[in-house]
């Protein structure tokens, strides 16, 4: 019945204030007064002009009541089934109220849209003391949003579209209803119904637009700040999630003074310096600047008397090299200190020179710090503290904080070998940043090349970067514009402000990093004796690139050598190396020929294979050890030789060949595959041996020969042989010769520690020397034996033996001892005699000065003999 006649009923539009309404039962009959009129019974309550009406009529089944409220009055009319209108005057309403006491529920209702514009809230509070409701009851809010205005709505447009939300009630006192997901500019038609057992009550129809009843949250963070002229202002922050402009009411209240309210549209109000240290409290509330709406609740009070020292700004975040200024007002025990009597200290350790002060006015002092350095963390503190003090160097415990950050962050970028993406890297020491700082790479792409002096543009985009294990951030640009200029910088955000690193501009084409060469091959050329290196490239023609080859002998401590080739059309290079018989490690990398961009990574390492270049240059040096076997009446000869060095073997030795030739003109060969010794029986008077080295190329052509001759073994040309130790690693062996009858081709020196059973050591020397330095590890207290063999073309001469140098050293040391001992004894006796003579001389000199007791009164009675005995 209600919905069918909505076009004829005046619907109440909810104001931006509290109001009251009656709840009635549509099934009850009521007594109608005999006269007609209009009700005008205004009654305002509360800060918001809450309107209450204390009585409304009940209706029959064929009639219903419609009312329209305003903030000052209410007009009510009774409609019959035939749509005849009956209006009531105040007296008639009063009669109805007296007759129908207890049959009408009167509720105070306040509805608003939350400041974030996401939720509509209605709060209901019971106004009349007596109630028709007994026990538990249910309250529902029925509503329908429509794009149409209220005047354009029809009953048919609303039928079947009402939605229901349940209201949460706290006993009989208060109920709260929510409508989520608002459409701010739609018209909402709604009413409330109450169910209490068999009793069903409903409110009149209401309408509203959510945008017209917005109630913001109260302002936040009230604080005192200072402007450049030294005046103070009270500042605050907008409530969060407020997507519309606001106006503000600022209220000053004191213990005696009445409230003073000012309305402003900014988030600050200049209050001067007179209120500082007063007993005033400040509160702020806000409301939508345009259109109707609710005032927010008042903010938390701010006490102006709490500020003994005021710094502006209280904290500064700046970059290295900047100039910064702080202002200060010092209120000491409710007495303002003159600005000319204020001094500034840094970290309470360094007084800032007065030349950096500025007297803004009588009570405001300003200090300026020039070319500030980066803040060094001190424990948990990441700032420098500035203290405002009086002339007596008494400082308040409050201080201003200065955060100085080094924003010189280097950004490097590389474009991959496919020219499809660019990776940029940068590093920042976050340990030196204030807590709560965040870093982000910002960039702007120019359609043309980079400027010579890049600057930060007004428009920019943010790039997501990820922290890597090496503490670098990486950002990827994909796809790319190869010839566009990308201006980049790092933005450091903090509650205190935003800092920006110096911008850099990058052209992706100019920061290419090619892929490393592949299919690397390296080998030592046999004939030329050089290192040949070849490779292939993945993406670019050879004419666009230059190459570097690094190589090293494969060993534990690698020492790289690098050769660069500006162009390599054949994709190969030749490098001269000194040692051809070692394994080399080789790597190759490439870069753009014009010098732009980066070198590629080094290719995978390849190793050369050692191959024999030529036959060994010569055979090994060798010596013989002869062991006689008396039982068999034969001599066994063991040949000893040293392995060939690689520069002689070129590059390896696979086996050795021992050639024999006797005086009977017999020859044969033996092969020694492994080892450096060979033993045979010497049965002939003359036996010549030659040892050849063989590798994969061939046998050595220059070799050493040794002839064994029983006749030559008796030839002795060495007259003397001596050995002198220099230190534990060197012994000098010298000899003299008699005029030789045969040509000496060389000498062989043998030496051995007689206290050890190790094999003898030997070395071949030139024939034209008579002194040789033997380098070995010698134990000087041990006994050694040295032998010298002259080598002739016809055979080996007789050996000359030198006994251990340790025996001679002992004899020399003993002789020296017997010479030194008498000298030491004679010197000691001479020294003792000198001391005795000196003692007697001193006594004589002393007594010459002693006075005669007969002539001196003070000396009479003194026993000088006793004193002499003491001496």
TrEMBL record:
Its membrane topology: Single-pass type I membrane protein
CDD domains: FN3
Domain Fibronectin type-III per the UniProt entry, residue ranges: 218-309, 516-611
Entry annotated with the keyword Protein transport: no
Annotated InterPro entries: FN3_dom, FN3_sf, Hematopoietin_rcpt_Gp130_CS, Ig-like_fold, IgC2-like_lig-bd, LEP-R_IGD
Compartment list: Membrane
Domain of life: Eukaryota
Keywords assigned by UniProt, alphabetized: Disulfide bond, Glycoprotein, Membrane, Receptor, Repeat, Signal, Transmembrane, Transmembrane helix
Cellular component aspect of the GO annotation: external side of plasma membrane
Keyword flag Transmembrane: yes
Residue intervals passing through the bilayer: 815-837
Gene Ontology MF: a single term: cytokine receptor activity
Family assignment from sequence similarity: Belongs to the type I cytokine receptor family. Type 2 subfamily.
Protein name as catalogued: Leptin receptor
């Amino acid at each position: 019945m209600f919905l069918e006649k909505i076009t004829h009923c005046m619907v109440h539009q909810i104001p931006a204030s509290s109001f009251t309404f009656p709840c009635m039962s549509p099934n009850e009959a009521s007594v109608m007064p005999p006269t007609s009129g209009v009700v005008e019974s205004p009654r305002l309550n509360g800060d918001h002009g809450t309107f209450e009406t204390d009585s409304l009529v009940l209706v029959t089944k064929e009639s219903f009541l419609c009312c329209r409220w305003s903030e000052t009055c209410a007009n009510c009319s009774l409609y019959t089934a035939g749509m005849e209108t009956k209006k009531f005057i105040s007296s008639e309403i009063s009669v109805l109220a007296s007759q129908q006491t207890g049959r009408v529920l009167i509720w105070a209702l306040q509805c608003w849209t939350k400041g974030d514009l996401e939720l509509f809230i209605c709060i209901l509070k019971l106004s009349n003391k007596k109630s028709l409701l007994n026990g538990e009851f249910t309250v529902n809010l029925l509503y329908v949003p429509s794009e149409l205005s209220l005047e354009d709505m029809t009953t048919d447009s609303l039928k079947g579209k009402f939605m229901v939300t349940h209201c949460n009630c706290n006993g009989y006192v208060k109920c709260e209803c929510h409508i989520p997901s608002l459409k701010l500019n739609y018209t909402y038609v709604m009413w409330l119904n109450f169910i209490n057992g068999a009793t069903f009550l409903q409110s009149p129809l209401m309408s509203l637009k959510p945008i017209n009843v917005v109630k913001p949250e109260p302002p936040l963070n009230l604080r005192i700040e200072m402007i450049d002229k030294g005046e103070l202002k009270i500042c605050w922050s907008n409530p969060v999630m407020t997507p519309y402009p606001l106006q503000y009411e600022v209220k000053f209240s004191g213990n005696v003074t009445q409230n003073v309210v000012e309305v402003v549209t900014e988030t600050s109000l200049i209050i001067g310096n007179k209120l500082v240290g007063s007993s005033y409290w400040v509160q702020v509330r806000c409301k939508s600047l345009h259109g109707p709406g609710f005032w927010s609740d008042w903010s938390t009070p701010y006490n102006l008397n709490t500020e003994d020292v005021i710094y502006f700004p209280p904290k500064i975040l700046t970059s290295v090299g900047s100039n910064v200024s702080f202002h200060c007002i010092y209120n000491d025990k409710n007495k303002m200190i003159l600005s000319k009597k204020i001094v500034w200290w840094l970290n309470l350790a360094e007084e800032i020179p007065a030349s950096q002060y500025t007297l803004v006015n009588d009570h405001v002092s300003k200090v300026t710090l020039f070319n500030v350095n980066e803040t060094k963390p001190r424990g948990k503190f990441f700032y420098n503290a500035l203290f405002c003090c009086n002339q007596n160097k008494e400082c308040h415990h409050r201080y201003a904080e200065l955060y100085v950050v080094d924003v010189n962050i280097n950004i490097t970028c590389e474009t991959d070998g496919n020219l499809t993406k660019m990776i940029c890297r940068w590093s920042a020491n976050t340990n030196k940043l204030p807590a709560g700082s965040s870093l982000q790479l910002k960039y702007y792409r120019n359609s043309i090349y980079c400027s010579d002096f890049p600057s930060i543009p007004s428009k920019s985009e943010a790039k997501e970067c990820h922290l890597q294990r090496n503490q670098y951030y990486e950002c990827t640009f994909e796809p790319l514009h190869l010839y566009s200029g990308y201006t980049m910088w790092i933005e450091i955000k903090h509650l205190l402000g935003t800092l920006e690193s110096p911008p850099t501009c990058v052209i992706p084409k100019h920061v290419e990093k090619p892929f490393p060469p592949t299919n690397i091959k390296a080998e030592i050329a046999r004939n030329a004796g050089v290192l040949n290196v070849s490779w292939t490239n993945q993406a670019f023609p050879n004419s666009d690139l230059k190459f570097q080859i690094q190589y090293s002998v494969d060993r534990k401590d690698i020492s790289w050598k690098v050769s660069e080739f500006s162009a390599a059309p054949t994709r190969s290079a030749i490098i001269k190396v000194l040692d051809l018989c070692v394994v080399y490690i080789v790597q190759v990398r490439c870069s753009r020929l014009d010098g732009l961009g980066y070198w590629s990574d080094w290719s995978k390492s390849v190793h050369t294979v050692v191959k024999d270049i030529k036959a060994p240059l010569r055979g090994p040096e060798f010596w013989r050890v002869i062991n006689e076997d008396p039982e068999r009446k034969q001599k066994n000869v063991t040949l000893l030789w040293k392995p060939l060095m690689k520069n002689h073997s070129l590059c390896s030795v696979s086996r050795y060949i021992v050639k024999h030739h006797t005086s009977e003109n017999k020859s044969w060969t033996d092969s020694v595959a492994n080892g450096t010794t060979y033993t045979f029986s010497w049965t002939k008077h003359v036996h010549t041996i030659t040892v050849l080295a063989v590798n994969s190329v061939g046998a050595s052509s220059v070799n050493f020969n040794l002839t064994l001759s029983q006749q030559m073994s008796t030839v002795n040309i060495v007259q003397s042989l001596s050995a002198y130790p220099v230190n534990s690693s060197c012994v000098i062996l010298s000899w003299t010769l008699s005029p030789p009858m045969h040509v000496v081709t060389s000498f062989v020196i043998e030496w051995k520690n007689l206290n050890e059973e190790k094999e003898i050591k030997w070395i071949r020397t030139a024939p034209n020397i008579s002194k040789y330095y033997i380098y070995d590890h010698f134990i000087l207290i041990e006994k050694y034996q040295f032998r010298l063999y002259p080598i002739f073309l016809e055979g080996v001469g007789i050996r000359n033996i030198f006994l251990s140098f340790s025996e001679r050293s002992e004899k020399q040391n003993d002789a020296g001892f017997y010479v030194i001992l008498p000298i030491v004894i004679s010197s000691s006796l001479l020294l003792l005699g000198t001391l005795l003579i000196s003692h007697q001389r001193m006594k004589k000199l002393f007594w010459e000065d002693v006075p005669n007791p007969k002539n001196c009164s003070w000396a009479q009675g003194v026993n000088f003999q006793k004193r002499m005995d003491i001496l």
